[in-house]
């Protein structure tokens, strides 16, 4: 057995087939082993149950430590170990601490993959060898600067410029400066609440969107609320008395002025309407909430109805997102650097956004990494249920930008029927980690999957079933590819483009009623676990 292990190791060393995998990736391990690769296992953390101490020194101190390690004979390309063992064992420099449960899960999987300990034996024999293929769940697990050119690693450094919500928002805001693509055509407008200018821009956007929404609501209810028609208020609605047509008149004036600024974009923007001060906006929003969310009656004249139709049509020619924004003015608030749907909240009230992130008006408080993004209120639904799509793509070079787009993707369903009147996570957040907390609603459509996952092929079959078979190849896939490329180009100069690295990403898309894809976010280290 030892002789056979030595023969395999000698061949692997000669062919530079030594690999290292950090994390529970059994399929990657098994496929590499099947090709003659031998794993160099990383040292494991001690099992004390408390978190190991982390290095909090300054950047200068880290550089001094690196120089000292090089002076002690550390070769370039080696996996550098912490010279001061933590909890009685050594660990890779800058490696991330894994929770006890994740460590146990990883070791159990490795034991299942290697019941007779043969791979452990070979790993012991290559303990002093340089790994030529490195797969980790975090780029920071290794010092990329110390890697040889012939060492392949599955991460690039500094990809937070497009793999965090805050970074993607900023990068796409700058996209028109470096590319001809317009982010408003594929990325719902987004603002960084930690930036003073973005905060103000968001509040202005919320006001303008509310005015447009009011015009749409007026048109939708026009047949029932035209002046002279009787509309008795239901006693349990609590919406109050009918609102005078002056509210709609204010909304019309706001939209007309906004249209003027859009049509004459090369001219300095018109000043705000004199009567729309901060307190005026507060009053306008409160009346708007009554009409849209509490269904208070809105007085509409025939002339106002015609102005609404004409104005909305002209605005739609200028604003590429009007088709998806709806009339509830719902926004989604996201922590800028978290994943799996943690901390995400949907709201339709400006004051709730500001309260949720601790903003009390002026002076502005620092809001960290929070972003707020326009919610897609008119998504493509499947049997009345919201879904999104996880699309994998692989980057193998940044100069020239080389992207491999996976033909397979998968759909993630919410657990409850879609509704703009109820903003529960079970209806609006498609993340698997969120939806696993809920059971499918009563009346769950029999054609919807019990595990709330479809393959992209099942989605294509559904599109054919509803008479939109061409949408996948003609609208959805080309739109997703264009969005991914635009997002990557927006951050191309910020990424540390090491030759010899590659990285797999997972982009999340939602589709409008017209099947137009809208990019929501891009994830590094996307889950690779089977459904």
Could you list the spans in which at least 5 consecutive residues all have pLDDT below 50? 46-100, 225-240, 360-366
CATH topology of the largest domain: D-amino Acid Aminotransferase, Chain A, domain 1
Proportion of residues in β-strands: 5-15%
Strand order in the sheet with the most strands: 11-10-9-12-13
Radius of gyration: 28 Å
Per CATH, the architecture of the largest domain is 2-Layer Sandwich
Mean pLDDT: 82
Termini gap? 37 Å
CATH superfamily of the largest domain: ATP-grasp fold, B domain
Q: What top-tier CATH class of the largest domain fits best?
A: Alpha Beta
Give the biggest sheet.
Answer: 5 strands, antiparallel
Helix content: 25-40%
Whole-number total of structural domains: 3
Total beta strand runs: 13
Keywords:
5-stranded antiparallel beta sheet, 38% helix, 531 residues, D-amino Acid Aminotransferase, Chain A, domain 1, 19 helices, single chain, 4-stranded parallel beta sheet
